[in-house]
């Protein structure tokens, strides 16, 4: 895939517009699995009983309550310092040593898994390279459509995913630039069906909407 274009909204949502290099999604991710960071490419299931604003408010209240409880639990007053002080020093040293041991074990396991999965990762990169070069040539002559993904992430979760295709590699780049400028100006979720400006941009570029899933708007079946 080519370098993505990012648009940051003030509500901690990051919109990414990516031109896909290979035709398939990253279902098998050897290197990400080795690092313990499997990246799911699907929209997080929303709670129909709550709005996104209510989720954010509840999370803030929960974090504030948790911080206050931790501060209250850590308070040591009066004579308790006389016998709690040495115990705290011993506890801190024990936790630090245990942390180093666990970190060393986890790092060793990650290196082992990384070495085992490295050949599969190289095969995947080679397959993407061959397929991408063939598709790149077809896209340049207009025989194949280019794919543009419009993805919104909030705290590591995908909240909106739209897959677009347009004929020609240059047209895909122009479309990604126009959509990123629009997202930055309006500061609202991407909607290829109900936003008149977005609909106009997509129509002018001859874009086909392959998929649109969003927590803000219901999915619209594509004919």
Tally of helical segments: 5
Report the radius of gyration as a whole number of Å.
24 Å
Helical fraction equals 40-55%
Order of helices and strands: EEHHHEEHHE
Roughly what is the average pLDDT, rounded to an integer? 78
| Class from helix and strand fractions | alpha+beta
Q: How far apart, in Å, are the first and last alpha carbons?
A: 27 Å
The quaternary organization reads as single chain
Percent of residues in β-strands: 15-25%
What would a concise description of this structure say?
This protein is α+β, with helices and mostly antiparallel strands. The chain is built from five helices and five strands; from the N terminus they run ββαααββααβ.
Explain what the structure shows:
The protein has a 5-stranded antiparallel sheet, covered by helices on one side. It has helices at residues 30-34, 52-74, 80-140, 169-186, 196-204; strands spanning 5-8, 14-19, 145-154, 157-167, 208-214. The radius of gyration is 24 Å and the shape is flat. It has 223 residues and is α+β, with helices and mostly antiparallel strands. The two termini are 27 Å apart. The longest helix has 61 residues, at 80-140.
